[in-house]
């Protein structure tokens, strides 16, 4: 059974550009081993991450991520109703603003992250986050080949 989780968290330490690259690269290396795919976005001190994979693996990883003292998870949304992976070849793609600008999604993501960081819950944005993930999934081939 595949499970997907999306969450927004607040960084508790300063991440340099190099540290963000290293974070995504380390995550990607571990995720290859555990069959986890997804993406990581960082903007103005907040992360938005989407992870998908085998239910048990995802639960274990999310526990690890939640315990990580470098950030505090504000809101989390999960679904078990995934029949196929939305990002099959992204083991942890680091999405940047310039990448999202190419597909006009930078504001969608920023609005969403701002909402989550303030309200501490996904609330009424529940549906919009899954629409956003599906939209990104549709663009993933284009993004895979673009320079970010
Ligand atoms: C924002 C953020 C995203 C992370 N994403 C992943 C990830 O996708 N995969 C992963 O293995 N670790 C990820 N980590 C690191 C984990 O929190 C944790 O350090 C790692 O799983 C090692 O845990 P362990 O030392 O208990 O084995 C992430 C950390 C942060 C702060």
Structure, briefly:
With 148 residues, the protein is α+β, with helices and mostly antiparallel strands. 47% of the residues lie in helices and 28% in strands.
Task: Note down, in words, how this protein is organized.
It is a single chain. The protein is of the alpha+beta class and 148 residues long. The chain starts with a strand and ends with a helix. β2 and β3 form a beta hairpin. The protein binds flavin mononucleotide. Flavin mononucleotide binds next to α1, β3 and α2.
Which short descriptors sum up this protein?
28% strand, binds flavin mononucleotide, Alpha-Beta Plaits, five-stranded mixed beta sheet, 148 residues, 5 strands
Tally of discrete structural domains:
1
- Poorly predicted regions: none
Shape: globular
Please provide the count of β strands. Answer: 5
Architecture blueprint of SSEs:
Blueprint: E1 2-11, H1 17-34, E2 37-43, E3 46-54, H2 55-67, E4 71-82, E5 93-95, H3 97-101, H4 106-119, H5 126-138, H6 140-145
Parallel strand pairs: 2-5
Antiparallel strand pairs: 1-3, 1-4, 2-3
The structure holds flavin mononucleotide.
């Amino acid at each position: 059974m595949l499970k997907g989780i999306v969450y927004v968290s607040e960084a508790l330490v300063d991440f340099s550009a190099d540290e963000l690259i290293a974070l995504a690269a380390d995550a990607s290396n571990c995720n290859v081993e555990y069959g986890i795919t997804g993406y990581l976005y960082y903007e103005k001190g907040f992360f938005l991450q989407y992870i998908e994979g085998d239910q048990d693996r995802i639960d274990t990883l999310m526990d690890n991520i939640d315990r990580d003292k470098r950030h505090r998870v504000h809101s989390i949304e999960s679904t078990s109703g995934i029949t196929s992976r939305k990002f099959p070849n992204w083991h942890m793609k680091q999405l940047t603003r310039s990448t999202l600008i190419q597909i006009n999604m930078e504001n969608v993501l920023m609005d969403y992250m701002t909402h989550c960081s303030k309200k501490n819950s996904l609330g009424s944005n529940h549906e919009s986050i899954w629409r956003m993930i599906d939209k990104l999934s549709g663009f993933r081939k284009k993004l895979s080949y673009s320079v970010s």
